[in-house]
């Protein structure tokens, strides 16, 4: 019997604060708590992941109304392969279905979709779908949605360092250009601004190997809300708190 996944937010509802600009251009989210959300209801963990995918769609819809131009979400880490085969296969299927089903909607909303992470371990069909939607939405600019799949910050840094070393050995990069800019240009996130704000749901306060280079000066928000329950209204509250912070980037007032 199918499970009814009721949504506390009525589709189309606009939270207070919509059409406001909070000075946040890039928000990154560690979407944690899907499994616990389902387990708390006596449902399979994959039901929580399905509900979490619906939540992504809702946040993508409202993000540009708050001045957000870049949204990066942590969907599957390099460590998540340690989970059960059933859950991993279910997640990979969910990623593929999300791309297939949301391609038209994302294009209509002016969303450009990008993926970061090591694609080598992903199956051929998923990689084709990822490349296809990246190409299809490349000209969109209302929002850049970046999904991290098989992503780990240390892995990304190691791959970027290896590529920079190869380019230097090949004479493509002079010694005087071995700097932060050259290194950052070889990260998966090349071309994206660093996140202003990183949000982690579920009450955990770890960064879990997510964007360690890029988030060096990001502000962090940790909320006890499980990702499937994270609402546009809570996003607005977090953005308002961000607006009251003074970012010094290592300097003084």
Automatic annotation (TrEMBL):
Q: Name one Pfam family in it.
A: Prenyltransf
Question: Which cofactors, if any, are listed as required?
Answer: Mg(2+)
Query: Might you report a single GO cellular component term?
Result: cytosol
Keywords linked to the UniProt accession = Magnesium, Metal-binding, Transferase
Give the residues the record marks as binding substrate.
Answer: 33-37, 45, 49, 77-79, 81, 83, 200, 206-208
Establish whether keyword Transferase is in the entry. yes
Assigned EC number: 2.5.1.-
Where does the record place the catalytic residues?
32, 80
- Residues annotated for Mg(2+) binding in this entry: 32, 219
Write one Gene Ontology MF term.
magnesium ion binding
Q: Which InterPro entries match?
A: UPP_synth-like, UPP_synth-like_CS, UPP_synth-like_sf
> An example of a Gene Ontology BP annotation on this entry?
polyprenol biosynthetic process
Cofactor binding note from Swiss-Prot or TrEMBL: Binds 2 magnesium ions per subunit.
Q: What does this protein do?
A: Catalyzes the condensation of isopentenyl diphosphate (IPP) with allylic pyrophosphates generating different type of terpenoids.
Which proteins does it associate with, and in what oligomeric form?
Answer: Homodimer.
| Similarity annotation | Belongs to the UPP synthase family.
Designated name of the protein: Isoprenyl transferase
Please give the organism: Pseudothioclava arenosa
Q: Which gene encodes it?
A: uppS
